[in-house]
Design a protein that fits this description.
Blueprint lengths: L1 E6 L6 E6 L4 E4 L2 E4 L4 H8 L8 E5 L4 E5 L4 E6 L2 E4 L14 E5 L4 H14 L2 E8 L10 H8 L3 E6 L1 H15 L10 H20 L3 E3 L8 H12 L4 E3 L10 H10 L13 E4 L4 E4 L29 E8 L2 E5 L2 E2 L2 H14 L4 E7 L5 E7 L1 H17 L2 H19 L6 H13 L5 E8 L2 E8 L7 H4 L11 H9 L1 H10 L3
Parallel strand pairs: 9-10, 9-12, 10-11, 12-13
Antiparallel strand pairs: 1-2, 1-7, 3-4, 5-6, 7-8, 14-15, 15-20, 16-17, 16-21, 17-18, 19-20, 21-22
């Protein structure tokens, strides 16, 4: 026997009834009462007094109920009593109708679901984007989401869109942040956030939420995308609002709200994985003086353990973008997956760097980008044939700004889009193939060919030719060096 107290927020009177397990029928997160039971009749008689939502929570069996009978309920079992304060009119921090949450199934996002319901009295739609993080991370997500209190889980495969519309433009632009970082996480966030905006429209949500901390770059990347694509959406960032400060607090909150705590082993590193890269932060990496441990790496073999025989790979490129591997045409995502496999086997693409975060602090990260490193090398080598000096210099200077915009989350900024149009135009003749040699962590060019090559053997040869007369160089040098000659004459009083 348990006791149910129904409390009207508009009346000082309380309604107390006794309920047995047979009186309750749980179905689709709703409570149904048998019309023949005395409990139903007693509650029905007082229904006009009561407004709001009800949540019945029983720590003994994990029962959680959301109903529309307009009551706040407290279900007492043994000596434990839990009050879930969420009314139809307002939560602890306000009222939202429906929130789309970026959801991974880990501890943090599992806790965010009940936190949103409690604080904003809203339905929560969990959203998971498949950007190539691996099948293992997508298993059992629907059960986890609903067990946490979500009304729905939406999963979208964004791998092809991610590579085609986000990675390839950065590759074509030659965008590298602070000399090393190939922007793996930076490119993934806007494609996820864009999909969240689409899902919010599909399900009629008035808000979106993410689990990014207040110290990182990702909060900016998500929210700038939300602003650009739907400025009317409310944005909730629990890590900037709640009192949870760490893993132990999150576990305690989860237990208090009957949310199953994920039993997966917690890594000592903070990782982000997608089809382009795998990043590692935290633990011993927080001290830049520490060398990474070999067992940390997951996408690449150590160069020392890589095959003793080099492997050659040929990349076909059309208009500055890769289209084939070893003569086989592949879709963008399939092509990248193939090169990740090949490059990882040879220890390609390991980067250890200290970078400047957008929020001002420095951070140390280690990145594995095997396929991406191969592609950047291939495109750059082909451009050495197809771009003239002035164009290459302008492109390289804009690539720095392009990388900064992507790193800062300004993917949908008109400036980046305009620069992308420039990059597309100047690389339209970058067609051909590049053959690369992979060996124990290194990538070196073996050959490059292009039907649009500006390289002319008959001009570049040291042998005499008709197009280039070496005698012409004398006049060119005199004119080119005239400013330096005049300055020297002035200093010597000539």
């Amino acid at each position: 026997m348990a006791q149910l107290k129904a409390i009207s927020p508009f009346s000082s009177r309380n309604l107390s009834v006794h309920v047995t397990k047979s009186d309750l029928m749980l179905c689709n997160d709703n409570v149904s009462f048998s019309k023949k039971s005395a409990l139903f009749q007693e509650l029905g008689a007082r229904n006009s007094e009561l407004q709001g939502d009800a949540v019945l929570s029983n720590k003994g069996n994990g029962l959680r109920v959301h109903c529309n009978k307009g009551i706040q309920a407290v279900l007492s079992h043994d000596k434990a009593t839990e009050v879930f304060e969420a009314t139809k009119t307002k939560g602890l921090r306000g009222k939202l109708n429906k929130v789309v949450l970026a959801y991974s199934g880990g501890l943090d996002t599992s806790v965010i679901v009940p936190w949103l319901r409690e604080n904003y009295s809203c339905e929560v739609v969990c959203f998971t984007a498949d950007v190539g993080q691996g099948v293992g991370e997508l298993e059992g997500l629907e059960q986890k989401a609903k067990a946490s209190g979500a009304c729905q889980l939406v999963v979208k495969d964004l791998q092809e869109e991610f590579v085609r519309d986000f990675i390839f433009p950065c590759l074509r632009a030659g965008a590298i942040y602070e000399r090393k970082y190939l922007l793996g996480t930076s490119m993934a966030r806007p494609v996820i956030a864009k999909a969240m905006v689409d899902v919010a429209k599909e399900v009629g949500a008035d808000a979106v939420a993410h689990g990014c901390t207040g110290k990182g770059n990702d909060q900016v990347r998500f929210e700038l995308t939300f602003f650009a694509l739907n400025p009317e959406l409310n944005v909730v960032a629990p890590w900037r609002e709640w009192d949870i400060t760490g893993r132990e607090d999150a576990i305690e909150y989860a237990k208090k709200h009957n949310v199953p705590v994920p039993v997966t082993k917690k890594s000592i590193y903070s990782r982000d994985r997608n089809l382009w890269h795998l990043s590692h932060e935290g633990d011993i990496l927080e001290d830049p003086a520490n060398e990474p441990k070999e067992d940390m790496y997951m996408m690449s073999t150590s160069p020392e353990a890589a095959p003793d025989k080099p492997e050659y790979v040929e990349i076909g490129i059309v208009s500055g973008l890769p289209v084939s591997v070893n003569g086989v045409k592949l879709s963008p995502a399939s092509l990248l997956s193939k090169l990740n496999e090949i490059g990882g086997k040879h220890g390609i693409g390991r980067i250890d760097m200290v970078e400047n975060r957008l929020v001002g602090m420095k951070s140390r990260g280690v990145y594995e980008t095997p396929g991406g490193t191969i592609l950047f090398t291939a495109v750059r080598e082909l451009e050495s044939l197809t771009l003239d000096r002035e164009t290459m210099q302008v492109k390289d200077s804009l690539a720095l700004k392009y990388a900064e915009l992507v790193y800062a989350g300004r993917w949908f900024d008109p400036l980046r889009e305009s620069m992308d149009a420039f990059m597309e135009k100047i690389t339209e003749k970058t067609n051909g193939s590049v053959r690369l040699k992979l060996y124990k962590g290194s990538v070196s060019v073996a050959s490059r060919t292009s039907p649009n090559s500006l390289y002319r053997e008959d001009i570049s040869s040291f042998e005499s030719g008709q197009i280039y007369d070496q005698a012409d160089a004398a006049g060119f040098i005199r004119l080119y060096g005239l400013p330096m000659r005049v300055r020297a004459m002035l200093e010597k009083g000539i």
